[in-house]
Each structure stands twice: as C-alpha cells, then as structure tokens.
Design goal:
It is a single chain. The chain has about 140 residues and is of the alpha/beta class. It has a single domain, classed as Response regulator (Rossmann fold, 3-Layer(aba) Sandwich), CATH 3.40.50. β1, α1 and β2 form a beta-alpha-beta unit. It starts with 13 loop residues before the first strand and ends with a helix. The N terminus is likely disordered.
C-alpha cells in the first residue's frame, strides 16, 4: 500500500486523465486528488484535446490505446496547437515498448510509462515532469 501525501499549494495544479476505462480513470482520480491535484477526465483522445484547450491542464496523463482518437493522435494534436504545445504529457501504455506506434507515441510524450503503474512510481514521474516542464 502507498502512503498518502498531500500537496499544500494555494492553487492545485490541473491534471487531465485520459483513458477509455472508467475504473482506471477513477483510480487515478483518487490518487491524484489525494496528492492535491485538480483532476479532469476524458474517455478518448478527441475529448481530451477539447478539454486540454478549454481547461488548460498543467499535465496530461494520456493512454495510448483508445476509441475515437488514440493517444498518439491526441498528443500530436496537442503539440500542433500553440495553446497546448507545451503541456507536459505522460503517456501510458499496456502494449509494451517495441510496437512501432508505441515508439512513436513515446517520442511525442515527455514520459512514457507501462501499465500497471504503482502509485509511488506515478507520483515520482509527476513530480519530475512538473519540475522540468514549462508551466501553462
């Protein structure tokens, strides 16, 4: 089990969680909320690009494989739009790292993680990504 940690910031940083599995989004929402983040959700890449433009999250946790628009296409859209081009993106996949499309996905993300992800691992990557990436 992991230790709950809370951020003590006056304005929590927005994180957009994108995954087609509602249970996984819910689990990540719980973790991120416990850590003090302001969490938004999207069930596919198309909704994610719309939410990213309107809500301007500091970081996007993006699944690779989804219906409507996959994670690769969504991140490419985010990178092409000047309003979201510098948004930090942590890509997540259950397809391993040898699939050519996953390799391309990893190249457009700031970080690529493989499922399953332990809470401590996710929190560590979030902290490093938010320290190194430009603010929105």
């Amino acid at each position: 089990m992991f230790r709950a940690e809370r951020r003590l910031e006056p304005r929590p940083q927005k994180v957009l969680v994108v995954d087609d599995y509602a249970d996984l989004r819910s689990m990540w929402r719980v973790w991120l909320s416990m850590w003090g983040f302001d969490v938004r959700e999207a069930s596919d890449g198309q909704i994610a690009t719309e939410v990213a433009v309107s809500q301007r999250p500091r970081l996007v946790l993006m699944d690779f494989s989804m219906p409507v628009m996959d994670g690769l296409s969504a991140v490419q859209c985010l990178r092409a739009d000047p309003r979201t081009a510098n948004t930090t993106v942590i890509g997540v996949t259950a397809h391993g790292r040898t699939n050519p499309a996953v390799i391309e996905f990893g190249a457009v993300c700031d970080v690529l993680l493989e499922k399953p992800i332990e809470p401590e691992e996710l929190l560590g990557h979030l902290r490093r990504a938010l320290k190194s990436g430009p603010p929105n």
